[in-house]
Amino acid sequence: MTTPGAPRIAFLGCGSMNESILAGLLAAGLDPRRVTATVRRAERAAELRRRHGVTALATSEDAAANTVAAQDADVVILGVKPAGIVALARGIGPSLQPTALVLSVAAAVTIAMIEAVLPEGQPVIRSMPNTPSRVGRGVLSISAGTAAGPGQMAQARELLASAGTVVEIAEDQVDALSAVSGSGPAYAFYLAEAMAAAGVDLGLDADLAALIARETVAGAGFMLAEEGADAATLRRAVTSPNGTTQSAIETFEELGLPGIVADGARAATARAAEITRELTLPAG
Hints:
With 284 residues, this protein is an alpha/beta fold. The chain is 52% helix and 13% strand. It is elongated and about 65 Å long.
């Protein structure tokens, strides 16, 4: 990405998620001179300049910072909190190049909500990343807006690939994906908590229990990612007939653990739809 034709990218809002994407792009060879980021605080802008060598502007110092960053960009990544996405898109709309790709990584804000405040025909893509994107092992979905064609989708896939696995889905599947991949890291962390608590209950030192639970969950995740087998195959390989692991798995089954996880995912999906409705309602 060091060629003269490399895209000019604006990160409007550069919290941990957008910074992870930024870091991946720079590691892949993108010239930092092709990047402008905006944040609220001047201290954060200075931190981004020191850490990555990019142009970073603070909206607290320049109210037009987002417009300045977006006006010459080939790709504009919207990364502020969901409640501010529509206002941000409306504010930069008149300054965008007609061919500029607008990529939103905000939860709950639909493509239609963004397209409604942008110039007609502006290419929009919605992405749903998850927190492992910070370490290059994320899952990031992309969904095309009405004016986003195969070229823009390929561009979005290339931009996001440094943060993890990119999957293309229809927008009406985003909430379901988020219930698995977006909320999923918390499920894994919750499992590690429960495993550590079980270790303490069985007489292990609390620090030791936390360590072995953490490393076991991390190691199992690495095997899932690197060995190319599905979860059921790996589980069966560990579960010897009539052994200790089989006793544990049978207990989980009897207590309805698969159904509990499914119910949790459905609850996450329902809440995502509620948040979207809340953001759609007019103020007041």
